[in-house]
Amino acid sequence: xxxxxxxxxxxxxxxxxxxxxxxxxxxxxxxxxxxxxxxxxxxxxxxxxxxxxxxxxxxxxxxxxxxxxxxxxxxxxxxxxxxxxxxxxxxxxxxxxxxxxxxxxxxxxxxxxxxxxxxxxxxxxxxxxxxxxxxxxxxxxxxxxxxxxxxxxxxxxxxxxxxxxxxxxxxxxxxxxxxxxxxxxxxxxxxxxxxxxxxxxxxxxxxxxxxxxxxxxxxxxxxxxxxxxxxxxxxxxxxxxxxxxxxxxxxxxxxxxxxxxxxxxxxxx
Length: 269
Ligand SMILES: Nc1ncnc2c1ncn2[C@@H]1O[C@H](COP(=O)(O)OP(=O)(O)OP(=O)(O)O)[C@@H](O)[C@H]1O
Ligand SMILES: [Mg+2]
Description:
binds magnesium ion, 6-stranded mixed sheet, 41% helix, Rossmann fold, alpha/beta
Protein backbone atom coordinates (compact mmCIF):
# COMPACT_ATOMS: atom_id res chain seq x y z
CA UNK A 1 0.00 0.00 0.00
CA UNK A 2 1.35 3.45 -0.92
CA UNK A 3 1.47 5.69 2.14
CA UNK A 4 3.28 8.65 0.60
CA UNK A 5 2.93 9.69 -3.00
CA UNK A 6 4.55 12.85 -4.36
CA UNK A 7 4.12 13.89 -7.98
CA UNK A 8 6.25 16.72 -9.36
CA UNK A 9 6.29 18.01 -5.80
CA UNK A 10 7.93 21.38 -5.24
CA UNK A 11 8.37 22.59 -1.66
CA UNK A 12 9.91 25.76 -0.37
CA UNK A 13 9.84 28.89 1.72
CA UNK A 14 8.19 32.04 0.40
CA UNK A 15 8.86 31.89 -3.31
CA UNK A 16 12.14 30.01 -2.96
CA UNK A 17 11.81 26.44 -4.20
CA UNK A 18 13.98 24.00 -2.28
CA UNK A 19 12.61 20.58 -3.21
CA UNK A 20 12.12 20.63 -6.96
CA UNK A 21 9.54 18.63 -8.90
CA UNK A 22 10.15 15.43 -6.99
CA UNK A 23 8.37 12.16 -7.78
CA UNK A 24 8.38 9.76 -4.85
CA UNK A 25 6.28 6.83 -3.68
CA UNK A 26 6.80 5.19 -0.30
CA UNK A 27 5.03 1.98 0.65
CA UNK A 28 3.96 0.77 4.08
CA UNK A 29 6.75 -0.92 6.04
CA UNK A 30 9.72 0.56 4.17
CA UNK A 31 12.81 1.70 6.06
CA UNK A 32 14.13 4.44 3.89
CA UNK A 33 16.93 6.94 4.26
CA UNK A 34 17.44 10.23 2.50
CA UNK A 35 21.07 11.11 1.95
CA UNK A 36 22.78 14.10 0.38
CA UNK A 37 24.96 17.06 1.20
CA UNK A 38 23.95 19.82 3.54
CA UNK A 39 21.32 22.25 2.27
CA UNK A 40 19.93 20.10 -0.57
CA UNK A 41 16.44 19.91 0.93
CA UNK A 42 16.38 16.70 2.97
CA UNK A 43 14.72 18.25 6.03
CA UNK A 44 12.40 20.28 3.84
CA UNK A 45 11.20 17.09 2.13
CA UNK A 46 10.80 15.29 5.45
CA UNK A 47 8.82 18.17 6.97
CA UNK A 48 6.77 18.42 3.78
CA UNK A 49 5.56 14.87 4.46
CA UNK A 50 4.43 16.10 7.88
CA UNK A 51 2.65 19.01 6.16
CA UNK A 52 4.86 21.68 7.71
CA UNK A 53 6.49 23.13 4.60
CA UNK A 54 4.60 24.90 1.83
CA UNK A 55 3.73 23.11 -1.37
CA UNK A 56 4.69 25.39 -4.26
CA UNK A 57 3.83 22.93 -7.02
CA UNK A 58 2.74 19.38 -7.78
CA UNK A 59 0.83 17.10 -5.44
CA UNK A 60 1.50 15.21 -2.22
CA UNK A 61 -0.66 12.46 -0.78
CA UNK A 62 0.11 11.15 2.70
CA UNK A 63 -1.97 8.32 4.21
CA UNK A 64 -4.69 9.04 1.68
CA UNK A 65 -4.83 12.80 2.39
CA UNK A 66 -4.14 15.39 -0.26
CA UNK A 67 -1.77 17.55 1.79
CA UNK A 68 -2.17 20.58 -0.49
CA UNK A 69 -5.87 20.93 0.24
CA UNK A 70 -6.21 19.25 3.65
CA UNK A 71 -8.65 20.74 6.18
CA UNK A 72 -7.53 21.71 9.67
CA UNK A 73 -9.27 18.81 11.44
CA UNK A 74 -7.87 16.25 9.01
CA UNK A 75 -4.42 17.78 9.36
CA UNK A 76 -4.48 17.19 13.12
CA UNK A 77 -5.52 13.57 12.56
CA UNK A 78 -2.84 13.11 9.91
CA UNK A 79 -0.11 14.50 12.19
CA UNK A 80 -1.22 12.20 15.00
CA UNK A 81 -0.39 9.29 12.69
CA UNK A 82 3.10 10.58 12.00
CA UNK A 83 5.78 10.42 14.70
CA UNK A 84 8.51 12.98 14.20
CA UNK A 85 11.94 12.65 15.76
CA UNK A 86 13.82 15.91 15.68
CA UNK A 87 17.55 16.29 15.79
CA UNK A 88 17.34 18.20 19.09
CA UNK A 89 15.12 15.47 20.65
CA UNK A 90 12.41 17.98 21.78
CA UNK A 91 11.99 16.23 25.13
CA UNK A 92 10.70 17.94 28.25
CA UNK A 93 13.95 17.90 30.19
CA UNK A 94 12.45 18.14 33.71
CA UNK A 95 10.03 15.29 33.10
CA UNK A 96 10.88 11.62 33.60
CA UNK A 97 11.57 9.18 30.80
CA UNK A 98 8.20 7.53 31.48
CA UNK A 99 6.22 10.80 31.31
CA UNK A 100 8.02 11.94 28.17
CA UNK A 101 7.18 8.69 26.42
CA UNK A 102 3.60 8.86 27.71
CA UNK A 103 3.23 12.32 26.16
CA UNK A 104 3.34 10.54 22.81
CA UNK A 105 0.03 8.91 23.80
CA UNK A 106 -1.65 12.26 24.53
CA UNK A 107 -3.84 12.24 21.48
CA UNK A 108 -5.36 8.91 22.50
CA UNK A 109 -5.72 9.60 26.23
CA UNK A 110 -8.51 11.46 28.04
CA UNK A 111 -7.51 15.01 29.02
CA UNK A 112 -7.83 14.24 32.75
CA UNK A 113 -5.32 11.40 32.77
CA UNK A 114 -2.97 13.35 30.48
CA UNK A 115 -2.98 16.37 32.80
CA UNK A 116 -2.47 14.40 36.00
CA UNK A 117 -0.07 11.84 34.54
CA UNK A 118 -2.45 9.11 35.54
CA UNK A 119 -1.85 5.86 33.74
CA UNK A 120 -3.97 2.75 33.83
CA UNK A 121 -2.23 -0.62 34.43
CA UNK A 122 -2.70 -1.33 30.71
CA UNK A 123 -1.00 1.97 29.82
CA UNK A 124 1.90 1.20 32.20
CA UNK A 125 2.32 -2.15 30.48
CA UNK A 126 2.31 -0.47 27.10
CA UNK A 127 4.84 2.18 28.21
CA UNK A 128 7.07 -0.50 29.65
CA UNK A 129 6.99 -2.35 26.36
CA UNK A 130 8.09 0.79 24.46
CA UNK A 131 10.87 1.40 26.97
CA UNK A 132 12.06 -2.17 26.50
CA UNK A 133 12.04 -1.82 22.71
CA UNK A 134 14.45 1.11 22.99
CA UNK A 135 16.32 -0.34 25.99
CA UNK A 136 15.66 2.51 28.41
CA UNK A 137 13.43 0.75 30.96
CA UNK A 138 16.03 1.00 33.72
CA UNK A 139 15.89 4.79 33.46
CA UNK A 140 12.09 4.97 33.56
CA UNK A 141 11.97 7.41 36.46
CA UNK A 142 15.10 9.41 35.60
CA UNK A 143 14.71 13.00 34.52
CA UNK A 144 15.51 13.44 30.85
CA UNK A 145 18.09 16.16 31.48
CA UNK A 146 20.17 13.53 33.30
CA UNK A 147 20.44 11.25 30.27
CA UNK A 148 23.16 10.98 27.65
CA UNK A 149 22.53 12.11 24.06
CA UNK A 150 22.03 8.52 22.88
CA UNK A 151 19.59 7.78 25.71
CA UNK A 152 17.62 10.96 24.95
CA UNK A 153 17.41 9.97 21.33
CA UNK A 154 16.04 6.57 22.35
CA UNK A 155 13.41 8.24 24.54
CA UNK A 156 12.43 10.40 21.56
CA UNK A 157 12.01 7.25 19.46
CA UNK A 158 9.95 5.55 22.20
CA UNK A 159 7.73 8.64 22.39
CA UNK A 160 7.22 8.50 18.64
CA UNK A 161 6.34 4.78 18.88
CA UNK A 162 3.93 5.51 21.79
CA UNK A 163 2.04 7.75 19.41
CA UNK A 164 1.11 4.53 17.61
CA UNK A 165 2.03 6.13 14.29
CA UNK A 166 1.92 4.71 10.81
CA UNK A 167 5.01 6.64 9.78
CA UNK A 168 8.08 7.82 11.70
CA UNK A 169 10.06 10.72 10.24
CA UNK A 170 13.53 11.03 11.77
CA UNK A 171 15.67 14.03 10.95
CA UNK A 172 19.31 13.07 11.46
CA UNK A 173 18.54 10.81 14.40
CA UNK A 174 22.17 9.84 14.98
CA UNK A 175 24.04 13.07 14.41
CA UNK A 176 26.34 13.90 17.30
CA UNK A 177 26.19 10.34 18.67
CA UNK A 178 29.19 8.06 19.11
CA UNK A 179 29.24 4.94 16.87
CA UNK A 180 27.91 2.61 19.60
CA UNK A 181 24.95 4.89 20.46
CA UNK A 182 24.34 5.59 16.77
CA UNK A 183 24.09 1.89 16.07
CA UNK A 184 21.77 1.36 19.08
CA UNK A 185 19.47 4.13 17.86
CA UNK A 186 19.31 2.69 14.34
CA UNK A 187 18.69 -0.80 15.75
CA UNK A 188 15.81 0.74 17.72
CA UNK A 189 14.32 2.31 14.62
CA UNK A 190 14.70 -1.02 12.85
CA UNK A 191 12.82 -2.78 15.71
CA UNK A 192 10.02 -0.20 15.44
CA UNK A 193 9.91 -0.86 11.72
CA UNK A 194 9.94 -4.64 11.99
CA UNK A 195 7.90 -5.15 15.20
CA UNK A 196 5.12 -2.65 14.54
CA UNK A 197 5.34 -2.35 10.75
CA UNK A 198 5.93 1.40 11.06
CA UNK A 199 7.29 3.02 7.92
CA UNK A 200 10.51 4.86 8.76
CA UNK A 201 11.95 7.72 6.73
CA UNK A 202 15.25 9.01 8.12
CA UNK A 203 17.63 11.70 6.97
CA UNK A 204 21.15 10.42 7.43
CA UNK A 205 24.56 11.93 6.85
CA UNK A 206 26.31 8.60 7.38
CA UNK A 207 26.12 6.65 4.14
CA UNK A 208 27.58 3.48 5.68
CA UNK A 209 24.70 3.30 8.18
CA UNK A 210 22.15 4.00 5.47
CA UNK A 211 23.58 1.08 3.51
CA UNK A 212 23.53 -1.23 6.50
CA UNK A 213 20.13 -0.47 8.00
CA UNK A 214 17.83 0.77 5.25
CA UNK A 215 15.94 -1.14 2.62
CA UNK A 216 15.95 1.82 0.26
CA UNK A 217 18.07 4.93 -0.23
CA UNK A 218 17.05 8.24 -1.76
CA UNK A 219 20.00 10.35 -2.89
CA UNK A 220 19.23 14.05 -3.15
CA UNK A 221 21.11 16.87 -4.69
CA UNK A 222 20.09 20.45 -5.26
CA UNK A 223 16.45 19.71 -4.42
CA UNK A 224 16.15 16.75 -6.77
CA UNK A 225 16.21 12.99 -6.33
CA UNK A 226 19.12 11.58 -8.29
CA UNK A 227 19.12 8.08 -6.83
CA UNK A 228 16.20 5.98 -5.63
CA UNK A 229 16.81 2.30 -5.05
CA UNK A 230 18.19 -0.42 -2.81
CA UNK A 231 21.52 0.13 -1.01
CA UNK A 232 23.26 -2.60 -3.01
CA UNK A 233 22.62 -0.82 -6.32
CA UNK A 234 24.09 2.47 -5.11
CA UNK A 235 27.51 2.53 -6.78
CA UNK A 236 30.44 4.80 -6.00
CA UNK A 237 29.95 6.85 -9.18
CA UNK A 238 26.40 7.72 -8.07
CA UNK A 239 27.58 8.49 -4.55
CA UNK A 240 30.15 10.88 -6.05
CA UNK A 241 27.41 12.44 -8.14
CA UNK A 242 25.15 12.90 -5.09
CA UNK A 243 27.87 14.60 -3.12
CA UNK A 244 29.79 16.41 -5.84
CA UNK A 245 27.28 18.30 -8.05
CA UNK A 246 26.26 20.36 -5.07
CA UNK A 247 29.85 21.20 -4.31
CA UNK A 248 30.14 22.43 -7.88
CA UNK A 249 26.95 24.45 -7.39
CA UNK A 250 28.33 25.88 -4.14
CA UNK A 251 31.64 26.69 -5.85
CA UNK A 252 29.68 28.47 -8.56
CA UNK A 253 27.71 30.40 -5.92
CA UNK A 254 30.94 31.40 -4.21
CA UNK A 255 32.48 32.45 -7.55
CA UNK A 256 29.41 34.56 -8.27
CA UNK A 257 29.74 36.41 -4.98
CA UNK A 258 31.35 39.83 -5.19
CA UNK A 259 33.80 40.65 -2.45
CA UNK A 260 34.64 44.32 -2.00
CA UNK A 261 38.35 43.55 -1.95
CA UNK A 262 38.45 41.24 -4.99
CA UNK A 263 40.06 42.51 -8.20
CA UNK A 264 36.97 41.52 -10.25
CA UNK A 265 34.73 43.52 -7.91
CA UNK A 266 37.10 46.47 -8.18
CA UNK A 267 37.14 46.30 -11.96
CA UNK A 268 33.33 46.03 -12.25
CA UNK A 269 32.59 48.66 -9.61
N1 LIG B 1 12.59 28.02 7.52
C1 LIG B 1 13.29 28.31 6.44
N2 LIG B 1 13.12 29.48 5.78
C2 LIG B 1 13.79 29.76 4.66
N3 LIG B 1 14.70 28.95 4.08
C3 LIG B 1 14.90 27.76 4.68
C4 LIG B 1 14.22 27.38 5.88
N4 LIG B 1 14.63 26.13 6.23
C5 LIG B 1 15.53 25.76 5.31
N5 LIG B 1 15.70 26.72 4.38
C6 LIG B 1 16.60 26.67 3.22
O1 LIG B 1 16.26 25.55 2.44
C7 LIG B 1 17.42 24.92 1.91
C8 LIG B 1 17.39 23.45 2.27
O2 LIG B 1 17.39 23.33 3.68
P1 LIG B 1 17.20 21.92 4.39
O3 LIG B 1 17.21 22.20 5.84
O4 LIG B 1 16.02 21.22 3.82
O5 LIG B 1 18.53 21.17 3.93
P2 LIG B 1 19.12 19.78 4.42
O6 LIG B 1 19.40 18.98 3.20
O7 LIG B 1 18.25 19.19 5.45
O8 LIG B 1 20.52 20.23 5.06
P3 LIG B 1 21.30 19.64 6.33
O9 LIG B 1 21.93 18.36 5.87
O10 LIG B 1 22.32 20.69 6.63
O11 LIG B 1 20.32 19.46 7.45
C9 LIG B 1 18.62 25.68 2.50
O12 LIG B 1 19.09 26.58 1.51
C10 LIG B 1 18.04 26.42 3.66
O13 LIG B 1 18.71 27.63 3.87
MG1 LIG C 1 18.45 18.85 7.51
